[in-house]
Every structure is written in structure tokens, then in C-alpha cells.
Design goal:
Layout lengths: L5 E5 L4 H17 L2 E9 H10 L7 H24 L3 E8 L1 H11 L4 E5 L13 H9 L4 E4 L9 E5 L4 H13 L4 E8 L4 H6 L4 H25 L7 E7 L2 H11 L4 E4 L6 H17 L3 E4 L6
Parallel strand pairs: 1-2, 1-4, 2-3, 4-5, 6-7, 6-9, 7-8, 9-10
Antiparallel strand pairs: 5-10
Helix pairs in contact: 1-3, 4-5, 9-10
């Protein structure tokens, strides 16, 4: 079954958003999905503009909407011609967050695509406010685009913790990038390692614990790949000891990845908080695009 039938790209017509629309078009072409492009005009800004021009100048709001509609259609035609895909165009006026989520639900999109930053020139690199709010709100997989879409994804890094959500992330990675090399990554630490060392457990014993933990993690990784139907696929498996965010970011560079696919949560209450923080760290610090696959944004 095709996991991605409809791709929705949102655009505020900034450069980062245009990159996101281009990536969405390329991805829709690769997987044979329907492409939709949405632009939301903030109702607050529109009302303020109408108030400023309240004096016989005609309906400035309608003129603005006509101009924006033309720009969005031009963008759709540009990416459509470049990647040979058609696109539905949706223009709405209202709350940006509410309208994006409402339209995503209306067309039952399988993947939301947004730029990492919006049109504001005042922000340093943190997630753009709209992108972060949509991540917190939506219950749909979401691709945060940071790079110009020159080509299809070639090498995809999938950090896993062996929960059911890891299986979801792995399957979605294959659906998004069917021809890419997949790299499964698990970062582990021996439970209470610091306390064990403080209690006098010698380094040889700790090393033995790490070897056992690594062997068990590799067994789980093999089982995960089998559950995802990837036993015959060229999937690289990496298990490393250390801090998860640092390892994910270092492997992104070392493996020359152009996409990271990661879940929002982990196994239990504590793990949910930890993976939530890992996901947010990866989103803010990675160079490549990041696809977040599951349901909560911790």
C-alpha cells in the first residue's frame, strides 16, 4: 500500500517556503502522489490593511488577495513545469495555524511539507514560529525542508529506539525515498552508567555491559528491519554508544545524509520526554531536511 497519496506544501512565498514547495513537488513526482499547495493570508494583517486604506480607495483587501493568488498559481506552474506534476492551489484567509491544519484534514494529506523558516528576516536559525506551531498541532507526518531540492533523496538516516514508532518511521522513510540508501541508527547508553562508575564498578565491567547492550541492540535492529520488510534491501545498521543528539548529528555528516526521519516520542513516559527533546534538538541543529513521523510534539 502506498503510504503517501497526497502531499500538501504550505507557502508564505518566502525563499524557504519556495524550497519546501519544490521538494514537495519532487517528492510527489517520485512517489506518484497528488500535490496541493496552500497559502494562508492572516486575517489580522488583512483587517489592519483594510483599516489603513479605509477611505474610498476600493477594496484593497480583494486586490491584495488577487495578487497573492496570482503569485501562488505562478509558483505552482513553476514547480509543475520543473518536476512535471500538477498541483491544486488553495488560498485561505484566517488563522494561519488553523487554516493549514483544517485544509490538511479536508484533503486528508499523508504528508505536510513546510520550510524551516518563514519570511521574517529577524530570526536566527530556530524553527520558524509557524512551522513549530504546526509541528505541535498536527497529527500528520511533517517534512521540514532546509535545503534546495536539487535531486531526490539519496541517503536517509533513521534514528530508532525499537518502539512501534520506529517501525512507522522506517516504513515512512522507505515510502518517501524509495530509491535512497537507508541507514538505521541506534544510540545507547548503559542504564545508570554514571552511578555504577561512582559506585566503584570498574571500567572493564562497564565495557562488558556496553558490549552486551550493543549486541542486544543489533539483534533488535535486525528484527526491526525484518518487520519493515527490508531484509533483502541494502540497509546499513549502526549502533553507537553515547549521547543520542550528538551521535545523530555527527552521523548525519559522516554518512552524508540528505534526510533524517525521526519519531516524536519513544517507549514510555520518560522516553517520550527524552525523544521529544532529541527530536527538537535534531530539528534545530541538523543541516539536512527532517521528517517527523508520529503523533505528539513533546
Amino acid at each position: 500500500m502506498n503510504l503517501i497519496r497526497t502531499v500538501l506544501a504550505t507557502s508564505d512565498l518566502s525563499a524557504h517556503a519556495r524550497h519546501a514547495v519544490a521538494r514537495a513537488a519532487l517528492l510527489a513526482r517520485d512517489v506518484g502522489a497528488r500535490l496541493a499547495i496552500a497559502h494562508v493570508v492572516s486575517i489580522g494583517g488583512l483587517d489592519a490593511l483594510r483599516h489603513l486604506f479605509d477611505g474610498g480607495t476600493g477594496d484593497i483587501g480583494e486586490r491584495l488577495l488577487d495578487e497573492v493568488r496570482g503569485e501562488v498559481r505562478e509558483l505552482a506552474e513553476e514547480v509543475g513545469s520543473r518536476f512535471q506534476v500538477g498541483a491544486d492551489v488553495h488560498l485561505a484567509v484566517g488563522s494561519v495555524l488553523a487554516e493549514i491544519c483544517s485544509y490538511a484534514d479536508a484533503i486528508d494529506t499523508d504528508l505536510l511539507v513546510l520550510g524551516a523558516r518563514g519570511s521574517s528576516p529577524m530570526r536566527e536559525w530556530v524553527l520558524g514560529s509557524t512551522t513549530e506551531r504546526v509541528l505541535r498541532k498536527t497529527r500528520r507526518p511533517m517534512l521540514v525542508v532546509k535545503q534546495i531540492a536539487h535531486e531526490s533523496y539519496r541517503r536517509v538516516l533513521v534514528p530508532v529506539d525499537f518502539s512501534a514508532r520506529s517501525l512507522e518511521a522506517l516504513r515512512f522513510a522507505r515510502a518517501v525515498a524509495p530509491q535512497a540508501d537507508l541507514i538505521l541508527l541506534h544510540a545507547f547508553e548503559v542504564p545508570f552508567e554514571g552511578k555504577l562508575r561512582y559506585a566503584g564498578v570498574d571500567e572493564n565491567a562497564l565495557t562488558s555491559l556496553r558490549v552486551t547492550a550493543k549486541r542486544e541492540a543489533m539483534d533488535k535492529m535486525n528484527a526491526l528491519a525484518a518487520a519493515a520488510g527490508l531484509t533483502e534491501a541494502p540497509v546499513r545498521r549502526i549502533v553507537l554508544h553515547g549521547d543520542a543528539p550528538a551521535i545523530i548529528l555527527s552521523q548525519e555528516q559522516e554518512q552524508d545524509c540528505d534526510l533524517i526521519v525521526i519519531g516524536k516520542r519513544g517507549l514510555g513516559m520518560l522516553e517520550e520526554l527524552l525523544l521529544g527533546s532529541v527530536t527538537k534538538h535534531v530539528l534545530s541543529q541538523s543541516v539536512c531536511d527532517v521528517l517527523v513521523t508520529d503523533r505528539e510534539y513533546a
